Each structure stands twice: as structure tokens, then as C-alpha cells.
Amino acid sequence: MTATIIDGKAFAASVREKVAEHVTRLQEEHGITPGLAVVLVGEDPASQVYVRNKGKQTLEAGMNSYEHKLPAETSEADLLALVEKLNADPAVHGILVQLPLPDHIDEEKVINSITPAKDVDGFHILNVGLLGTGQKSMVPCTPLGCLMMLRDQLGSLSGLNAVVVGRSNIVGKPMAQLLLRDSCTVTIAHSRTKDLADVCRGADILVAAVGRPRMIPGDWVKPGATVIDVGINRIDAPEKGEGKTRLVGDVDFDSAKEVAGAITPVPGGVGPMTIACLLANTVTACCRANNLPEPE
Ligand code: NDP
Q1: Which pLDDT tens digit goes with each residue over 147-193?
Q2: Is the distance from CB of 206 to CB of 216 less than 8 angstroms?
Q3: DSSP-assigned beta bridge partners for residue 106
Q4: Is the ipTM of this complex over 0.95?
Q5: 262 alpha carbon – ligand 1 mean position (Å)
Q6: Ligand 1 neighbours (beta carbon < 6 A)
Q7: Cross-strand bridge partners of residue 214
Q8: pLDDT tens, position by position, 204-223
Q9: Where NADP(+) is bound, by residue (predicted)?
């Protein structure tokens, strides 16, 4: 039996639709339009694509989008000054500084200069601490999208064995916190983990956030497990023509789908959910700023 393929694209569209409905209500009932400011420093091509998509989808959801594109040689002081301005701007409810930043800028310093209530990426240390202690916070978008897909697929996650492969601050660690909050028994694996294959084989929920193309084969997957593949890896695709490339995940999709109960594809799985959750976080931030009920 092959796995259910979790359609992240369709799920993300439904999340964006709900966001747009909430935005309309905020405008009609309270005269408020949520606003998201995205700051891009430099010309990293992948970041440019992300920022363009974020801006486009923000506008499509009926919100205001404020894009700030700064040259690569922008000083840390100038970037911090811009964040300060956005922190003070009442029309801006969410601030996102696109990572990575150029080497001469201290990423942590910049992230921690964002007002926590506007930190829609959920990377500020205060939000990290709030999440870790089970308090209301801004939750990082990629893990939040994964959690939504897992809940949709499985209902209650209580008591399930979850293995998260990867311990980054932006995906692995917050993912583990969210699964723990939903009463999973959580293992965080990483590059020093011994017997990774066996660890993965114990997972009812397997989340791969590594950045290594197809490193998790089907025989590491427990039969019937739910597999969430966060990895986005570009590999050569000579079958498509000379010099062509394509995207694959951290899981070997073809072999894993023969064993898993459900699995996200790459592309079309976790990726689209990330921006949808960013829009949802912006509406949440706007509601909190105005003492209005938050979307569910
Ligand atoms: P990082 O490089 O920050 O972290 C990778 C993690 O994988 C580290 O914890 C590392 O362990 C671990 N790792 C590396 N090699 C191995 C190995 N051989 N066995 C086990 N663990 C290993 O990556 P990110 O968390 O930022 O991203 C992970 C992937 O997710 C990337 O492909 C990225 O493109 C993708 N991504 C996708 C998003 C989306 O929207 N879908 C959003 C964000 C990321 P250690 O700590 O020991 O070095």
C-alpha cells in the first residue's frame, strides 16, 4: 500500500483563504489592515525569490506589504535603525528580516532588535523562551506549517513517538518544542546521532530537516509512519536536459512512500505552508496589537 501524499499546496491555499477572510473582517469591522514589512539585504537569488513571493501573497491576502531592499554593503547600524523605525510604525504589525544576512552583520543582534510582538518569524529569544515554556508566543512559520499538516493528518498527536532529524534554531528545535507541546515523545537527532537509521525506525512521526538530498531511505521509515520532509535540495537533473536541476527533499520519496502511511512531497509539501503561516502570524500579531480575538 502506498502512502497518502499530503498536499501542502492545497492545504496552504486553504490557510491563505482563511487569512484573507480574517483580513476582510478586520477591515470591515475595525478599519484595520494588517501590514507585513520584509527586509532584504543584498542580492542572494534564493532570498530574492522568497521575498518576492512573500510580498505577492501578502497583497493577495488583502494585507499591506512593505518591502525594504538594501544593498549588500548596508551597515549593521543602518539595518538596526530601519528595524527601529519599523518597530515604531503602527501600520507595521509583522517584521521579517530575510536570512541569511551578509557576514559583516550580526544576525542574532538584528533578530533580537525586532519587537517580539512583531517578530512574525518567531526567532527572537523572547519568543523562543515563551514557546519553550508553553506560553503564548510567535511560532516559527516552517515548524508551525508542519504541525498543522500533522494535526490535519493524524488528529491528536498525544503519545506518538516523534523523531526530528536536525537541530537548527529555525526548524529542528522549534519543531521539537511544538511536538512536545502536543504530548509526543520527542527525539532530536543530528549529525552526531548514533544509529540514526534505528532511531528513525522508531518514529510514528518523522520530520527531516537536514539539507542533504534523499539521505533518509524508505527502510529507515516505520511502516505506517507520517513523514514530513522539510528539506529543499537542488540537484542536477540531466534527464531534463543539460544543465537542468530539480528540487528533492531529505527523504528518498520513491522508497519512503511505499512504507509510510502519509508523506509530504518536495516540492509541494512543507514549502508552500511556510509563507501561508507567515501571513497567519501577521494577522495574529495585528489582532494582538489591537486587543482583538485571534484567528484559531
Ligand atoms: P541547518 O543546516 O541549519 O541544520 C541542519 C541540521 O541537520 C543540523 O542540526 C545538522 O546537525 C543536521 N545534520 C546534518 N547532517 C546530518 C546527518 N548526516 N545526519 C543527521 N543530521 C544531520 O539547516 P535548516 O534547519 O536551516 O534547514 C534544513 C533543511 O530544510 C534545508 O534543506 C533547508 O533548505 C530546508 N528548509 C526548508 C524550509 C521550507 O520552507 N520548506 C524552511 C527552512 C529550511 P548538527 O547540528 O550536528 O550540525
Answers
A1: 999 999 999 999 999 999 999 999 999 999 999 999 999 999 999 99
A2: yes
A3: none
A4: yes
A5: 21
A6: 142, 165-168, 170-172, 189-193, 196, 209-212, 230-233, 270-271, 274
A7: none
A8: 999 999 999 999 999 999 99
A9: 166-168, 232
